[in-house]
Design brief:
single chain, 141 residues, alpha+beta, four-stranded antiparallel β-sheet, binds adenosine-5'-diphosphate, binds magnesium ion
């Protein structure tokens, strides 16, 4: 195991449901530390740039539409094995298939409005963190 950082986004549906604190508690209770955090109302270009890897997928336009539909709350999470730990806390992309007790099973309603984003690899975590946070805004332990 290695000390890692990962990018997390509490998506517009979960912000609207007023469960930011509940989601953050899941991270903290699992031993992850919040190293940076900000709100943002993403423009279409911001969201399209962030999800550029998915630009040829059929759901891309819906994804950009959804991610710009309201404010998001973006965090850097840090801890041992943080990338996988966060993916495990999140649950499957489709909340109807997510394991009981995961964030998506408990707070999400559909594959579009699925409450949270989490980086899927060390390489993408570094790219995604840099996309939203200048290094001076990431708490260095
Ligand atoms: P994850 O967020 O679990 O890493 P992906 O990276 O595959 O999932 O997809 C990014 C986001 O795009 C998902 O969180 C979801 O909101 C949306 N998405 C993925 N697959 C579909 C799909 N088949 N239909 C609609 N939206 C999708
Ligand atoms: Mg993904």
């Amino acid at each position: 195991m290695a000390l890692e950082k990962t990018l997390s986004i509490i998506k517009p549906d979960a912000v609207e449901k007023n469960v930011i604190g509940k989601v953050l508690s899941r991270f903290e209770d699992a031993g992850l530390k919040i190293s940076a955090m900000r709100f943002a109302l993403l423009s279409k270009d911001d969201a399209a740039g962030f999800y550029a890897v998915h630009k040829d997928r059929p759901f891309f336009n819906d994804l950009v539409e959804f991610m710009t539909s309201g404010p998001v709350c973006i965090q850097v999470l840090e801890g041992e094995d943080a990338i996988k730990k966060n993916r495990d806390l999140m649950g499957a992309t489709d909340p109807t298939k997510a394991d009981k007790g995961t964030i998506r099973a408990d707070f999400a309603v559909s594959i579009d409005a699925n409450a949270v984003h989490g980086s899927d690899s060390e390489e993408n975590a570094a790219i995604e963190i840099a996309y939203f946070f200048p290094s001076m805004n990431v708490y260095a332990r």
